[in-house]
Amino acid sequence: MNAALARAWMLAIATAIDEHTDHLTQLDSAIGDADHGANMRRGFNAVRAALESLEPETAGDVLVKTGTTLISTVGGAAGPLYGSAFRAIGKTLAHPAIDGDQLLAALTDGLGAIQRLGGAALGDKTLVDAYAPAIRAFEKELRAGGAIASAAARAADAAEEGMRATTPLEARKGRASYLGARSVGHQDPGATSTALIFRALAEVVAAP
To answer: pLDDT of 19-50, one tens digit each?
Structure first.
């Protein structure tokens, strides 16, 4: 992981959000304010523009810039949550080249930032339900001797599994928690966008 790869990851996220904006909106219309797709698209379009003029020395520079941009452009809870996560990840990746253990530590710091800000835990039907399993899968693959590419692939798979597992849950945090039992049966939009973020990472690090 270096500055070029970090930039490629952010641009891949922007593309994925563009492609899934309507789906994210549909999910959020059921249990939220129906604006998650539009908010995320606006934020990552702003990230795309911000990175065009950035001359980063490290992956951390790219990710801190991403986080700052998201905080200033994304409405609702997503801006502060994702923005804080990417800023935390970036601050941990202030090195010219990053190995798997450093990336794991940075991603873990990102989750910590989200949980400190939002107070969510596994099972609360939030993006944590996709993020936390992704971290566990990434670490498990690294400890088994896997490279960053295979660890990222396992993380993406786990994020998507966690995303799907939010459907039968009752929301205990965020806007969806106001619905109580009526939130059951709907996939969480934040977990869905988190899964897109991890899948983008897997695709970028696997690219030749």
So the answer is: 999 999 999 898 888 899 999 999 999 999 99
For residues 78 and 94, give the distance between their C-alpha atoms in angstroms, rounded to a whole number: 24
**Is the pTM value of this prediction over 0.85?**
yes
Closest by CA position to 70, among listed 90, 37, 36, 45? 45
CATH of the domain at 157: 1.25.40.340
Within 10 angstroms of residue 177's Cβ, the number of other Cβ atoms is 16
Give the domain extent around 50.
Answer: 3-206
- Total domain count, the chain: 1
Question: pLDDT tens digits, residue range 157-194?
Answer: 999 999 999 999 988 877 777 677 887 999 999 999 99
Q: How many CB atoms lie within 10 A of CB 69?
A: 24
Please tell me the distance from the alpha carbon of residue 107 to that of residue 127, in angstroms, as a whole number. 14
* Region at 119 (left for phi over 0; alpha for psi -120 to 50; beta for the rest): left
Per-chain mean pLDDT for the chain = 93
Distances 67 to 60, 86, 91, 168, 175 between C-alpha atoms, Å:
10, 5, 10, 31, 22
Tokens of 72: 């200033």
Could you give the CA distance from residue 22 to residue 174 in angstroms, rounded to a whole number?
21
Measuring CA to CA, which residue among 108, 43, 103 is closest to residue 73?
43
CA dihedral sign of residues 143, 148, 153, 157: positive
Q: Rounded distance, CA 30 to CA 95, Å?
A: 42
